[in-house]
Protein 1
Amino acid sequence: MSLATRTRKALYAGATAALLGATLVGASAAPASAEPRDGTCNAGEFCLYYGEGQSGAVADFANSKRDYTENGSCISFRGAGKAGAGVCVQNHAKSVWNRTGATAYEFYNSNFGGTHDVIPAGTQANLNANVYNDNASHILGDASLRFPLNVTQAQIKNRSPHWCWDSKTNCHHDYNAADIFAATGTAVVSPVAGTVMTKNIRSSGVGSTVTVKDRFGRLWYFAHMHHSPAPVVSVGQHVEKGTRIGTVGTSAHALGTPAHLHLDMRVGVDERVGCSGSGCASYGFVNNQPLLRTAFLARPAS
Ligand SMILES: [Zn+2]
């Protein structure tokens, strides 16, 4: 776990405890119908339970949630007289029932970051140890990535230096981002289905850049790409997973380092913030190394 992750979790835990009293006051206003967070796990909903085996109070959701707060308060479990009623959902869920028709991803960090558990449609289960009582956001739908380079595993593993593909934590120098070392000219493809938000063609500095926003509000930023040939997508264009974006640039485009793709992500923004190095640390970039590793391991070995 990175220092940044620990800090983030600790801050949320403090806020959660402070808000608990306020949430209990409002809990009785829940409508008694098949609506999200009415304390009943209805068909079509994704439900988090305070206890194991779908026991205790429940928090039922109809949509993805990038954190478990609403209107400045923590979202709490509902269920009069049941264990956990009124307790904040964040970091207190032990089991789930996925009654949606889609796969659900429960994440350790807010903003769909860090380690996660995958819950298939229709499944009742206790959460895996990595997110058991350590849950901060969820995606309903396919959160998985297509690895953003058209390469085999061997082509990445054999680079020196190489992307920290086997690290369990964030491994960019200054903040949550991935530097994936690859040969100049390697095709960069979109890891998600989404819309191209920005494109800049540059022969120096950070090189050519593109951003793509997906339906979960995740804004993906690709940097150090080549200027000639330039990125092939246009602003406003819809891309699918695997749609070609551009190519990995030369060392000159990567600020003097060997050629690599820089990939970072934030949630809920339309433009990538202008920052570099340690100056980016306070902007809420999300650790997506676990999703990237899974995508990498889906590539052919050689
Ligand atoms: Zn980088």
Note: The pocket of zinc ion is lined by residues 172, 177, 179, 262 (CB under 6 Å).
Protein 2
Amino acid sequence: MSQLPTPNPPVTADSLPFWEGATDDRLVLPRCNGCAEVIWYPRHFCPRCGSADVSWFEASGQGSIYSFTVVERGQGRWAEHSPYVLAYVELAEGPRVLTNIIDTDPDSLSIGDVVHASFDHSEDGRGVLRFTVR
Ligand SMILES: [Zn+2]
């Protein structure tokens, strides 16, 4: 668990399976039953083919850093946590997720580094998806 701010996420009926999984430290994602696209952000709708026929599955939690930046001067609640890492992680299942890389020296990171899902928990107990290098 990182020390980064972890606000309560905006849980909706459409994304509930994702948040229920994240609360148990599991990465649960929707996959389209029409075209097999793994869908990000989580919802009951495929942005690729328009189908509303999706199934939820537990993803590997593995990915790699597609791009990242080190935020040296965060704003508001984030200021005291600088520097921190804002990154796009490409999941093994395909989608690219905007996230934080935690528990890692920012100066040690490189594009392509293998990362693993790690969940911080908000005040309401929901898991917030972040990644760590192991
Ligand atoms: Zn589809």
Note: The chain has one domain: 13-132.
